[in-house]
Amino acid sequence: MGKYVYPAVFTKEDDGKYSIFFPDLEGCYTTGDNLSDALYMAEDVLAFTMYSLEKDKLPIPEPSENLAAEAGSFVNYIVCDTLEYQKMNNNKAIKKTLSIPEWLNEKAMEANLNFSQVLQEALKAKLGVY
Fold first, then answer.
1. 83 vs 80: CA distance, rounded Å
2. DSSP state of 84
3. Helix, strand, or coil here: 75?
4. Alpha carbon of residue 82 to chain centroid
5. CA 80-85-89 angle, 5° bins
6. Residue numbers in the chain where pLDDT is lower than 70
7. Strand 73-81 relative to strand 29-32: parallel, antiparallel, unpaired?
8. Is 92 exposed, middle or buried (0-12, 13-18, 19+ CB in 10 A)?
9. 99 φ, ψ (degrees, to nearest 5)
10. What is the rounded distance in angstroms from the CA atom of residue 95 to the CA atom of residue 98?
11. How far is 21 from 17, CA to CA, in rounded Å?
């Protein structure tokens, strides 16, 4: 998981909407109803694309520098964090079977602990993600 910055080309269409594409990333494009929406959508599609590349263990292309835009368009750098994207969009609970010593189970039950919550907290601490 990582943080990425890529240039995006924004073009204002005749209807006032924006089309956005990332020249360094094949198939990475989106639209927005206005500039604010376009910036939000650009970050979302960049995070989705980068997360997909990471998940599939595909090479991450180098971002272009000093990219020029054609008349009627402009270039803006978009930032994304694939770990944050994953936290927001991949929260489906999965069931894990594990074993702990009986004495530990009894102590945890007496303390009325939520095993799922404790495991999630411990995994986050161990992995350094919050």
1. 9
2. H
3. strand
4. 3
5. 155
6. 1
7. unpaired
8. exposed
9. -125, 140
10. 10
11. 14
